[in-house]
Amino acid sequence: MIISVASGKGGTGKTTIAVNLALSLKGRQLQLVDCDVEEPNDHIFIKPKKLKKEPVYIPLPQVDDRKCTGCGRCRDICQFNAITLLNKNVLIFQELCHGCGGCAYFCPQKAISETKREIGVVEMGRQGNLDFIQGRLNIGEALSPPVIRAVKDKIDRSKTVIIDAPPGTSCPVIEAVKNTDFCVMVTEPTPFGLNDLILCVEMLRELKINFGVIINRSDIGDSGVEDYCRREEIPVILRIPFDRKIASLYSRGLPIIGNLSGYDDIFSDLYNKIEGMVAG
C-alpha cells in the first residue's frame, strides 16, 4: 500500500505525520519517501545512515549550427518559451527547458540533438527496518517534478510506502500523490487551513484518490474545518490536540514516536484505519 501525506501549505504538520506514521509501523518492510524535493527534512528525524546518491538529469537540446537553417520550427513548437531566434541563430534558455524533446523531434533539418543537464539528486539510506529515499532539487532549479519522478521510481510496491508530498496543490504535489492508494491530508482548524483543505480536496477528487483528513492542533482555531468535512462527508481520521511537548521535540529534530508515550498506539491505529478504508 502506498500512502501519501499532503497539506495545502507548509507548517501544518505534514512531515510530523509522515515520519511518525512510518516509525510506528515496527516489523514491517517499509519505505519512507520524501518528495518535498525543494526542502526535504524527513532525514532530520530519521537520521538515515550512509546516504547513497544518484544524480537526476533532464534532456537538454543542442543545435548543430552547420545543419540549422534558422527556420524557427523549434521555437514555434516549444510550449515553455525556452527557445528563441536572434538573427536566425537559435538561443536556448536551459532553465526554462522541460526536456520534452519536441524541438529535436520536429526539427526539419535534424539539427537538434540532446545532451543532459543535472537538476537534482536522489538520496537513499536505511534506518532499522526503514528504507529512506529523498529527492533534492539543485539550488536555482525550477523543475521539481522530474526529481520527484526519479524518487518515485525507487518505490518498491511490495513494501508499505509512505510519501511525504510537497506543500500546496500545484504540479509537484500532483506528481507526488498520483498513483497512491490513499492520501492523508493534514490541516489545521483555521480559515487558512480550511481554504487550503478545500483546494486539496478538489485536487484529490479530480485525481480519484481516496483520502481522509487529520486535524492538527485540533483544540485551537474554529469549527470551519470540522463543519466542512461533515458537510462534504469527508472522514476525519485523526485529531491531534496542540501539545507543547510535540513542538519542542520537532524543534530539536526528534520524532514523537519513541519520545512521547501513547503515540505508538495512536499512529498504529491510524494505519489500521487507513488500511481498512483502502480495503473498502
TrEMBL record:
<dbReference type="Pfam" id="PF00037">
    <property type="entry name" value="Fer4"/>
</dbReference>
<dbReference type="GO" id="GO:0046872">
    <property type="term" value="F:metal ion binding"/>
</dbReference>
<dbReference type="InterPro" id="IPR002586">
    <property type="entry name" value="CobQ/CobB/MinD/ParA_Nub-bd_dom"/>
</dbReference>
<dbReference type="InterPro" id="IPR017900">
    <property type="entry name" value="4Fe4S_Fe_S_CS"/>
</dbReference>
<keyword id="KW-0411">Iron-sulfur</keyword>
<feature type="domain" description="4Fe-4S ferredoxin-type">
    <location>
        <begin position="59"/>
        <end position="88"/>
    </location>
</feature>
<dbReference type="InterPro" id="IPR017896">
    <property type="entry name" value="4Fe4S_Fe-S-bd"/>
</dbReference>
<protein>
    <submittedName>
        <fullName>Ferredoxin-2</fullName>
    </submittedName>
</protein>
<dbReference type="GO" id="GO:0051536">
    <property type="term" value="F:iron-sulfur cluster binding"/>
</dbReference>
<dbReference type="InterPro" id="IPR027417">
    <property type="entry name" value="P-loop_NTPase"/>
</dbReference>
<feature type="domain" description="4Fe-4S ferredoxin-type">
    <location>
        <begin position="90"/>
        <end position="117"/>
    </location>
</feature>
<keyword id="KW-0408">Iron</keyword>
<keyword id="KW-0479">Metal-binding</keyword>
<dbReference type="Pfam" id="PF01656">
    <property type="entry name" value="CbiA"/>
</dbReference>
